[in-house]
């Protein structure tokens, strides 16, 4: 039996947009603050990006740190503040054109101070590792980058004039207000070995590297300390035990420690340091207030959606979107 050809099937529906602008999402307010009187910090992990929460007190007494990480060449709106902190993985693989995109984005932000470190993806910034032919060829084939040119994007006079400070295992001090508090910061791009990326250390090398970290107000490392916002999607702890031990032994651990690397563990908490060094350091993670214990605000600032919160209402969350927004940390300018 033959007849007219059947009508063609209807065209498939147009593909669903995979991303929506952040205004299409809802942003429940998620905030915590110190239990002291007066308060000394406020942390915002979720907020309306169109109207970020105000400082908790006068700007003469408070400093706003805006924390981002793992932006991997993507750009998005970042709230204003006094200090921008980028905890590494500025790019996909550290190509010069990728770093130029990130550099232009950072330069365009209005924060007077922008402290930036590298991560395992910013390959040419780890000069001695990138010089090894197998390493650079594995990621960049025949088109090899020049480490100095890639770094120059973050360190040239144009970047400096825009407030960018690139730290690679070094300290820096700065003021954001005339006559205001001087803040000390240390930045380090390293993380425990996995698959021979840039700035990977073996466990035997960890102690020597973390021993360089001095007592500062603000610590920035690409990788987390072991047990703190470091749980991977396959339920392993990817943070560095030597880093946790080193910080736990400090008389004055940092007030704020910003890292990234484990995208799916993005978030913030307050870690209380057990004064008894014999105790298992992981047992010290707690929200219970312990009188007199030193505290560090821990921020995993990863902005690339990963893990359980990658989707929202069937829609792919964009970089910096709900669950992966820049984390705002307001600190009282106490000594
Ligand atoms: Zn990353």
From TrEMBL:
Task: Tell me the InterPro entries matching this sequence.
Answer: Calcineurin-like_PHP (IPR004843), Metallo-depent_PP-like (IPR029052), UPF0046_metallophosphoest (IPR051693)
Region described as Disordered: spans on this chain: 1-24
Residue span, Calcineurin-like phosphoesterase domain: 64-264
One matching Pfam family is Metallophos
What is the protein named?
A: Calcineurin-like phosphoesterase domain-containing protein
Compositionally biased spans, kind Pro residues: 1-16
Signal peptide (UniProt feature, chain positions): none
Gene Ontology MF annotations: hydrolase activity
């Amino acid at each position: 039996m033959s007849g007219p050809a059947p009508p063609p099937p209807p065209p498939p529906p147009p593909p669903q947009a995979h991303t929506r602008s952040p205004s299409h999402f809802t942003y429940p307010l998620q905030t915590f603050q110190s239990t002291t009187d007066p308060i000394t910090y406020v942390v915002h992990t979720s907020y309306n990006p169109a109207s970020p929460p105000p400082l908790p007190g006068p700007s003469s007494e408070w400093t706003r740190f805006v924390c981002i990480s793992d932006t991997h060449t993507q750009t998005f709106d970042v709230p204003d503040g006094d200090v921008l902190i980028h905890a590494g993985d500025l790019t996909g693989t550290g190509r010069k054109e990728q770093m130029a995109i990130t550099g232009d984005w950072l330069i365009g932000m209005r924060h007077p101070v922008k402290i930036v470190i590298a991560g395992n993806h910013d390959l040419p910034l780890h000069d001695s590792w990138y010089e090894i032919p197998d390493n650079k060829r594995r990621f960049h084939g025949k088109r090899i980058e020049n480490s100095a040119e890639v770094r120059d994007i973050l360190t040239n006079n144009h970047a400096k004039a825009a407030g960018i400070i690139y730290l690679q295992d070094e300290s820096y001090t700065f003021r954001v207000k005339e006559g205001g508090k001087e803040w000390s910061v240390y930045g380090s791009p390293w993380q425990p070995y996995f698959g021979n990326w840039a700035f990977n250390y073996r466990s035997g090398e960890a102690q020597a590297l973390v021993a360089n970290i001095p007592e500062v107000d603000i610590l920035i490392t690409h990788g987390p300390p072991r047990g703190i916002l470091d749980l991977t999607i396959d339920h392993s702890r990817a943070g560095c035990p030597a880093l946790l031990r080193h910080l736990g032994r400090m008389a004055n651990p940092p007030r704020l420690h910003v890292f990234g690397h484990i995208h799916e563990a993005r978030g913030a908490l307050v870690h209380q340091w057990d004064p008894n060094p014999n105790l298992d350091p992981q047992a010290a993670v707690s929200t219970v207030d312990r009188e007199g214990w030193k505290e560090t605000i821990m921020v995993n600032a990863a902005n690339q959606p990963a893990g359980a919160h990658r989707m929202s209402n069937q829609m792919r969350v964009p970089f910096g979107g709900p669950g992966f927004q820049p984390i705002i940390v307001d600190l009282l300018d106490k000594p």
